[in-house]
Amino acid sequence: PDRYLNDFSKALAGEVRILLAEVGKLRDERRQLQYEIAELMSVKSKHGSGGEYNEGWEPGVHPQPQLAPPSPAPPPPEEVPAGPARPAWRVVHKRPERKPKPRAITGGASPSPAVAPAPLPAPVPHKDMPAWAQWRRALPFPP
């Protein structure tokens, strides 16, 4: 069984390597295409409305209307005291142990000790069972 698992792992690793190489190649192709599209858009933006090409064209600066007056300057930062900074490490003190409170016994039947439920039986490994089935949770009753 170990030999089959080893062979399967090697084959799977080879497939993963091939797929990762393809993904890397596709990523590089996408980057190259995006670069080419950006270059084409740049050239297209330099053409005027009549179709003539302007080499040194740059977008004009248009003043934007101001809707609200400029906000006042932010307040200056508060001055930090020149003393030493407070340490980040803190001491955690251990809590004192608590003593249980004595309960008042009322008349009547004495309380019975709590009985823990019986633990589930441990799953018995079967030799004919596939590997994934051994990890399944053992159910107390069949589904």
Fold and architecture overview:
The protein has 143 residues and is mostly helical. The chain has a domain at 1-48. It contains 2 helices and no strands.
What does this entry show, briefly?
The protein has a domain at 1-48.
Name the shape in a single word.
flat
- Average of pLDDT: 75
Report the order of strands and helices: HH
Distance between the termini: 30 Å
In total, the number of strands is 0
Over all CA atoms, what is the radius of gyration? 38 Å
Helix content: 25-40%
**Structural class by SSE content:** mainly alpha
Main sheet record: none
Q: What are the low-pLDDT stretches, counting only 5+ consecutive residues below 50?
A: none
Determine the oligomeric state from the structure.
Answer: single chain
The proportion of residues in beta strands is: under 5%
Instruction: Quickly count the helices.
Output: 2
Describe how the helices and strands are arranged.
Elements: H1 2-45, H2 131-134
Describe the structure using short key phrases.
single chain, 143 residues, mainly alpha, 2 helices, 0% strand
